[in-house]
Amino acid sequence: MREALSSNRGGAMKILKIIPEKCTGCMRCELACSYEQTGTFQPSKAVIRVSAFEGHTSYAPYTCPQCDEAWCLTACPVEAIGISPAGAKDVADDICVGCKLCTIACPYGTMFYDIDTHKAFKCDLCGGNPACASVCPTDAIVYEEADKTDWVGPFAAERAKSPAGPLAGVL
Amino acid sequence: MARHVIVGGGTAGWNAITTLRELDQGDSEIILVADETPYSRMVLPYYLARDIAESHVYIASPPKLAALSVDARLGARAEKIDASAGKLILEGGDEVEYDNLLIATGSSAVKAPVPGADGENVHSFWTFPQARAVASGVGEGARVAMIGAGFIAFTILNALVSQGVKLTVVELESRILPRMIDDTGAGIVQDWLNDRGVEVRTSAQLASIEDKGDAKLLKFKEGPDLEVDLVIMATGIKPNIDWVAGSGLETNQGILVDEYCRTNVENIYAAGDIAEGPDAVTGEKVVHAIEPTAMQHGRVAAANMAGQEVAYKGSLLMNIVDVLDMEIASFGAWDDADAEVFEAVRAERPAYRKLLFHGGRLTGAIILGKTREIWTTNDVGMLKGLVYTGVDISEWKEHLRENPFDVKRAFLASGAAGGLLPETILGRPSISAHEIAVSS
Asked: What is the topology classification, in CATH, of domain A2-142?
């Protein structure tokens, strides 16, 4: 128990490292994620999301960074969110009541709400074998020991400074 | 061994207990004085909807408290504090000495001061017993009047509708949710409710509640009477502060606390609905009677009680409520006449966004849209991150002025995530509740 604990205390842990420069925007990660998480090929149920920058010429996947503060976990009023053996913050469906407090507590925008199950859901690192990383054909998403860092921010900021500026993409 | 005495077993008190045990693994004495077995108020609406059992509402059963080595005085009520002697005096005269005292006595529902407000079948919906009373009175076809159209009222609206009640919402002010969204948002929500068979009366001042056979007859200053079977009073809450009078604690709306959740009296802390502490956006002291503030206050107070010197950035005002599959959320200073405002309505969806800026900093936001629209629930966290960090997004302002809905890329480019990741409130990674235990 204490060993399991210490692995979550800033020690080395495998995380999803994202190299947006390698992303082609193929959305395979979203498809694989939604299938692994919910059994359907439905990107709207994915907990990793690809954003388009510079119109539609470059892309960046983004998902839960498994932050140390664990805003979702501490916010949950029924202790439905725990830390899995893989080190992921994970929602227990049988305890979650769907109050959405975690969705406003999480400052990363990586808590989701499933309108069909009425439960919160998020990246659980697929129990230690994340589908997004497995299927990424260009190694833009890799699962390895690395620092928890903002993998997408500098890329996104640099795209915002491009001659095209922060162009409207979708929506 | 230090003795921590905690008064109140709600979200603030319970989080203080778990945080103390997280930090000391049992190396302190904890006495909990609470007049009820701790439960989670946040899930009472799901109990009312009959989604969950009573057992699901209790967050800390007596065995769980015992496992954390908490001396739980359940059913006991604090009467006063003798700070010079370091003693808490309970009703009935028992005294409890403390090294550190945490006041987390929360707030109580206040009924509209009208004749008949204390009559039969007129209930507040705040405590577990009140929730039980309401639950036993609602069912298919029951006519229910909800007095007050604030956040608390709206948290139980879905549950009432799901039970098949005929609901009328009555609000004194000119719009619903007056302290959570603005006129534009309130108008959209009101139309949404009307289209779904919920009657809403605004600018309606209740004059009295009379009995009419088994039914209740509501009379107003103006307008037609309303006959219902059950009345729910969601007309506000107030901090349970009266009992600390004479203790030397500085109070305003609540007990004033600093960024360590310390009061002006040595070794006395306050947390949750009863504490008036710094706001993360404005820095001013306010009572934020919301669950996330109670949780954070409880943790911060406990860390300091355990001797850790943990300063707190302040609480962020935020609320989210789902009203018949429409999501309504607001963050920070959303009602700020001095702010630069970008807003957009998409009436056909319907959806609404309002972003409030001071310079390059997002200081408040309102978001409203169908729960089924994926971006509605997806964007709330990013808006929270932007408001909470106050990161400079000057470069995105023109874009957001054009399209306040496209917040995602602005968030990703802002570096907010990079700033947040190294930050933890207690200076250490959080752990699962079930991993918190006392060492034998």
From this structure: Alpha-Beta Plaits (3.30.70)
